[in-house]
Amino acid sequence: MNFALFLFVLLVGTGAVWALEVIWLRRKRPAQVRQAWWIEYSVSFFPVILVVFLLRSFIVEPFKIPSGSMIPTLLIGDFILVNKFTYGIRLPVINREVAQINHPHRGDVMVFRYPEDPSLDYIKRVVGLPGDRVEYRDKRLIINGHLVGARQIDDYLSKDTMQYYKRYLEKLNGVEHQILVDEDAPAYVPQVRTFPFSGNCHYNVGGLVCTVPPGHYFVMGDNRDNSSDSRVWGFVPDKNIVGKAFFIWLNLNDLGRFGTFR
To answer: Fewer CB within 10 Å: C terminus or N terminus of the chain?
Structure first.
């Protein structure tokens, strides 16, 4: 059971007891008789659970970064906040959109349900929109025939591997963000899986070319050679979108990591 479903069940349970207490039990109970412990706890916790459920479902939700696929933008152990209403209002638990507010843009850091296992949440950067022709050739990104700008800056030292990686500032949708490239890694995409609309992608030794189908997005990790993303397992359907990541609020390994990112 995922946490959203657990919270929903808890909300329904405590809410039912709270309503029963307000409507019927309170009137039937003699004045000198105390509430049963389960009624007391349910009535006390229901408002708190309701507020947490509403905030988490419709406003903002916390996540923890479990892998290094978004280094250097996001590090392992970063606790981040995700805006749940940027792209629209979705029903909790089933994640069905009921009101559309906006669409993802190229360059957005997006949290979504992993297409191969929707019980898992993934985070990647949006690089391709519906209808886009996305090429990743010799480790350069090309969108609709236009080479995406990238300028090299200082190298990045990974504290985990004690290895230096080439670091670039890539510009998507007018906004720059950092990416890492491992020059020793091959340009071709290894271990490609079969996925919906896989016929839209063509692979070769230099990379791949994909046409993004309607209602889907092409996403990539900023740690380009250490990320399992749309190059491997395919496109992200709109129905899997959770929200837009925007804020780092804690990292227990680096207490100085705090603030917005892009």
So the answer is: N
